[in-house]
Amino acid sequence: MLANHSSATEFYLLGFPGSKELHRLLFATFFFFYSVTLMGNTVIIVIVCVDKRLRSPMYFFLGHLSALEILVTTIIVPVMLWGLLLPGMQTISLAACVTQLFLYLSLGTTEFALLGAMAVDRYVAVCNPLRYSIIMNNRTCLWVVVVSWMFGFLFQIWPVYATFQLTFCKSNVVNNFFCDRGQLLKLSCSNTVFIEFILFLMAVFVLFGSLIPTIISYTYIISTILKIPSASGRRKAFSTCASHFTCVIIGYGSCLFLYVKPKQTQASDYNRVVSLMVSVVTPFLNPFIFTLRNDKVIEALRDGAKRCCHLFSN
Question: Which portions of this protein are annotated as coiled-coil regions (predicted)?
Answer without folding.
Answer: none
